[in-house]
Amino acid sequence: MTNCSFIEKADKIYINGNIYTGQENDDRYNYIAIKKNIIISLGTGEYSHLVDHSTKIIDLKNNFTLPGFIDNHTHLMWGGATLRSIELKNINDKNIFINTFKNYVNKYLEDRWIEGGNWDHENWGGVLPSKSWIDSVTLNNPVLVTRIDGHMALSNSIALKKAGINRFTPNPPGGIIDKDPITGEPTGILKENAIDLVRRVIPKKTKEIRDEIFNTSMKHAASFGVTQVHDMCSWDDLLTYKRNKDKLTLRIKAYTWYENWNNLIDLIKSDGAGDDMLRWDGIKAMVDGSLGSRTAWMHNHYLDDKNTRGVLIINDTTFFKDLIKNIDNNDVQLAVHAIGDKANDWIIDHFLQIIEHNGIKDRRFRIEHAQHLTNNGIDKIIKHDIIPSMQPYGCIDDTRWMHKRISNALMARSYIFNTFIQNNVNLTFGSDWDVTPLNPLEGIYAAVSRKTLNGKHPDGWYPEQKISIYDAIKCYTKNNAYAGFQETKLGVLKKDMLADFVVLSKDITRIETSEILKVKVLRTVVGGKDVYELSD
After folding, report:
1. Contact 523/534 with Cβ under 8 angstroms?
2. pTM higher than 0.70
3. pLDDT digits (tens, 9 = 90+) for 40-95
4. Do the strands 64-67 and 501-504 form a parallel or antiparallel pair, or are they unpaired?
């Protein structure tokens, strides 16, 4: 009697690779074998035992291969729409700002809304734009263009009129309509919930346009090696993802807005919580605004505006507290935006109240951004295993002007990557795309170097918070998988895990930090399928 064992044959084998698995050791392999969407083997040397007549062999040409990048915080549809909209991000002059609108309007028919933007008034010295800048060149085109952080926007006169905003319009709860101190007329600047007054009068995009935007976003993500996003989305966004379920080239864990809570419960009851390609068992909420817009909620007033400490944008705190307890009771994960130190303390305390009220379980609370923290807040995050969902590019971007807003003491407790790593906190990284670039290599560079974009901190902004390249990779892969309750399937490369990986032109663990930004994505694989290949 012959004793033989069955050897599973691979559909694909990627050979001649420099394959880093993302696990604790730095063992390298040169092939990865896949059956359907699962890794069945990683190894060095001989792989012929995995081959049959139908096995496809792909040569990685000794290029660096690592687990697919997971982005912890995107606005996928907003980002995709911005790729098709007016681009104001790098403008550093008022006249160029105006001419960009003029040139954009000349390309399109009258009455078309102008959206997107991503302007940053700090680029031209900190003076806010106003409707007077653009009214004469947008006579027939209503405008709503957001600041880079999404927490402040500029509208022109026609858009304000459509929204019914005038000198008598009061600030909505959690929002600010900026007005001229002399005339009382709206300047066109809207902050936080005031933006919605205009946003709600913009005609809804058709399903066809939304599908086009989504496809654009997925292609954009694949080109940067992103294999999954944790998407902070609207209900319409989630419906778009479900409608395109059979066409997904990107894994999505959707965190829809907390006001859609009843819809989400109904969906989970009828359809479950989704699968490995698309899940929707998370809820996103927001406590405050942003530092750039001076709407992040702080314990102390802003250094450059002593009339404000930011904004708590939750209208009914009693309702909100009861709601998040109910959300947690239904085993839906909470991901709450908090940027200011007071906002972070506030939501941490409410997380702890939920634990006390609902009992101990594996809930993995997330703070989206966790940007500026008190010592007390840091200690509680560490002690209670709260997940800081951070975006490292900000520590080389908005730190160019952060000193205008907050004290040195608070800056030292901002973007504290190494503190969390050293205390075994499950720190996660992402982009907040379209606020910062989607490319994870730019985020990794930021976390490792902390060199501000203006060149003023060549050794790193608060360099004691720099982390290693291996830790930065972990924050974009393994830690993000854990943050999405997917650590048994994603985040590392090993047998029986989903076959998500990215191939880079250089081994980022073995090059100078300055070279990381030159590295190209050569190939992106999701579930064993090549969703992106760099063209020659």
Report:
1. yes
2. yes
3. 999 999 999 999 999 999 999 999 999 999 999 999 999 998 888 898 988 999 99
4. antiparallel
DSSP type of residue 305: B
Q: In this structure, are residues 479 and 486 in contact, taking their beta carbons and an 8 Å threshold?
A: no
Scan for tokens 């040139």, then name that residue: 103
Stated as kind and residue range, the H or E segment containing 445 is helix 440-449
Phi, psi of 500 (to 5 degrees): -115, 120
Query: How many angstroms separate the CA atoms of 143 and 137, rounded?
Result: 11
Sheet holding 226-233, edge to edge: 69-74, 226-233, 251-257, 278-286, 333-338, 366-369, 387-390, 428-429
- Both tokens of 503, joined, read 């191939």
What is the bridge-based pairing of β-strands 28-29 and 31-35? unpaired
Query: How far apart are the C-alpha atoms of 350 and 344, rounded to whole Å?
Result: 10
Per-domain residue ranges of the chain: 12-62, 70-75+206-531, 81-199
Q: Tell me which DSSP letter residue 37 carries.
A: T
Secondary structure class of 395 (helix, strand, coil): helix
CATH classification (class only), 12-62: mainly beta
Residue labelled with tokens 């982390």 = 467
For the record, the structure tokens of 317 come out as 């705190």
Contacts of 212 (CB under 8 A, 6+ apart): none
Q: What is the enclosing helix (H) or strand (E) of 420?
A: helix 417-422
Q: 240-255 pLDDT, tens per residue? A: 999 999 999 999 999 9
- The span from the CA of 463 to the CA of 457, in Å, is 9
Instruction: Give the tokens for residue 111.
Output: 């009455």
The count of other CB atoms within 10 Å of the CB of residue 132 is 13
**Cα–Cα distances in angstroms (integers) from residue 413 to residues 71, 91, 301, 378, in the given order:** 23, 30, 17, 9
> CATH class for domain 70-75+206-531?
alpha beta
Q: How many CB atoms lie within 10 A of CB 102?
A: 12
CB count within 10 Å of CB 11 equals 18
Name the residue among 285, 388, 406, 395 with its Cα closest to residue 334.
285
Q: Can you name the residues that pair with 29 across neighbouring β-strands?
A: 19
pLDDT score recorded for residue 5: 58
Q: What span, in angstroms and rounded, lies between the C-alpha atoms of 451 and 344?
A: 26
- Tell me: domain 81-199, CATH 3.10.310.70, correct? yes
Maximal C-alpha separation, the chain = 98
